Known about the structure:
- The model has no long low-confidence stretch (mean pLDDT 90).
- The protein has helices spanning 2-18, 391-397, and strands at 20-36, 42-43, 49-64, 67-78, 95-104, 109-116, 138-147, 150-158, 185-194, 198-212, 219-236, 239-252, 256-273, 276-285, 294-295, 326-338, 341-351, 362-375, 378-389, 404-406, 408-412.
- The protein has an 18-stranded antiparallel barrel. A two-stranded antiparallel ribbon has the order 2-20.
- It is globular, with a radius of gyration of 24 Å.
- By secondary structure, it is mainly beta.
Amino acid sequence: MKKQYIVLALLLVSFQFVNAQFTLDGEFRPRTEYSNGYGSLIPDAADAGFGISTRVRLNTSYMTDNYWVYVSLQDVMVWGENRQILPNDQNNSFAVFQAWAELKLGENTSTRVGRQVLSYDDQRILGGLDWAQQGRNHDAALLKHVKGDFMLDVALAFNQDYSNPTRFQSTGTAYNTTGYFSYKTMQMLYMKQKWAKLSGSLLLLNNGFQEFDAVTNEADGVSNLQTLGTHLEYKDGSFGLSANAFLQTGKRQGDVDVKGAYLVGLDATYKVAPKVGLGAGLEVISGNDGAAGETGAFFPLYGTNHKFNGFMDYFYVGNHANSVGLVDYHVSAKFTINHSSSLMVKALNFRGEQALASGGKYLGTEIDLVYSKKFKGYSLALGYSQMFASDGMYELKGITETAVCRNTKLGLGNVGN
């Protein structure tokens, strides 16, 4: 009798898998970096940084006709961070990167609930930040509608950081997690339409940031920051054109009024030969105009900011918030060496959108080089970047020019986007 029950159980399991798709995959991504002034200028007497990290991910997916469950586990390990025979991971870097369930609500509509990546268009405002070893995710509920060449996404989030048994009592919902624009509430609407050669999207995003009383340190309302704008792409043969236009208004963290903050960008690409592609573009990001109690500075929030404004990350990568803004002129060339390798060369010229205290605006010029090589089953990227800082950059960073002369970075791994 027991054998019959075992056979029946096996048959039920087999039946489930016949009507579903289960996949298991992983990622092993080491990255070696030599940093000599990465992110900011450093004194000449300071030592350069060198280190190796590895990101490991294990991804599982279970999909049926009516629902889809996805879980991604990850750990970011810096070589040598743990002493020998340490019983636990010292930096607590193991995390659930994604964990969501998507339910089909109709022929063209579904909802996805849980920890997930929100990535749209060129990732200027919302991106997966895959360049960073830890990546970026959101805990949210997402309603998705796709019909033909039209898509509509609506996302809602309410974040909390309680960790005690009183969480279900009337103790309030103060959100104590701060930094890097960590939000308490989020509402997003994204629409996109594609045509033969043109596509356009509209993004409406509201983020609510918890405020605290300066004296009592108790929760004191929420500051709401609105970001709205569009991304356009045009493609005709060898010619491509893309544009961004975004505005920010409302209040940012610290109950600061945001007025007249904007980001506009235009990029053109042209394939002059089968193995040579050229690019040129301009991006303007508004800065703080110095008005008391308010700011005109735009910040691109949750995008993959490393992809923009140079790989040295002097701007908007955990820095440059509420500063002088940025005007970024850039040109690039990509050479396909053969079927498995390529070389990208990019030059960027930086100026403040607002003037520095000295009255100047020029900040410097950066050169980025990335060589990529594909092998069977894996790939390799090698990058070199250097910032040629102007007097204005020293003034912006608040560092004496005579004490500083180094600003380069060499990377091996995912050095690009």
